[in-house]
Design brief:
With 210 residues, the protein is mainly α. The chain folds into 2 domains: 45 residues; 161 residues, no CATH class. Helix content is 46%, strand content 8%. It is built from 6 helices and 5 strands, in the order ααββαβααββα. β1 and β2 form a beta hairpin.
Length: 210
């Protein structure tokens, strides 16, 4: 009996040592090594965006910016978030509790919020409510989607150009530069990265100032 217990204990120790080396040493080192491959390093570090060498956000996290003066709003806006303090989902989300609203398509609360968002966005952009695209009034599953549709970006171009002093053509060019195509050429839909676009607009507007 003692001999059997000794053999079993020895086998258990050998397995423990082996798994520790494989899963606790080799695997983490392999993952770290892959993250150092050129082209992957930036993503592995969180896709951090910087301005003058300082972190200014992430291209993977869309947090809706709040203008100091709503009447002179220079920002492109993300999709609404169910975690925003504003009851309509407008304004910055709380990334620590990101998530969707969990409301279904027949929810009167959700439908009411969508119509209110549509009216607010139409007023902000100075357009008819029928022109407001669906992604402008519906939250993503995470509530922190950094991308919006090209249609929603195009809707915001005139306002951003007017407030920043850039021409609409220049702002539209920046939108095109920060629009990603369909993954693999056929999956999903094109998307405009809002965090990257806002930084690009800010940089272009700063160059115009004396």
């Amino acid at each position: 009996m003692l001999s059997l217990l000794t053999r079993q204990a020895a086998a258990a120790v050998r397995v423990l040592i082996l798994l520790t080396l494989v899963l606790g040493v080799a695997y983490p080192l392999a993952v770290w090594g892959v993250s150092r491959i050129p082209g992957l390093h930036h993503r592995a570090e969180g896709s951090v965006l910087t301005v003058d060498g300082r972190p200014a956000g992430s291209s993977l996290i869309g947090i809706d910016p709040v203008p100091a003066d709503p009447a002179a709003d220079p920002f492109f806006h993300t999709r609404p978030s169910a975690t925003a303090e504003d009851p309509l989902g407008i304004g910055p989300a709380d990334p620590s509790v990101s998530g969707g609203s969990n409301k279904g398509g027949f929810s009167e609360t959700l439908l009411g919020a969508v119509e209110q968002r549509r009216a607010l966005i139409a007023a902000r952009e100075g357009v008819d409510a029928a022109r407001v695209p669906a992604d402008a009034v519906t939250a993503s599953a995470s509530g922190l989607d950094p991308n919006i549709s090209p249609a929603y970006a195009a809707l915001q171009v005139p306002r951003v150009a007017r407030v920043t002093g850039l021409s609409e053509a220049d702002v539209a060019r920046l939108v095109a530069q920060h629009t990603d195509g369909r993954p693999l050429g056929f999956l999903g839909e094109p998307g405009v990265n809002v965090p990257e676009l806002n930084l690009a607009v800010h940089a272009a507007a700063s160059m115009m100032r004396p």
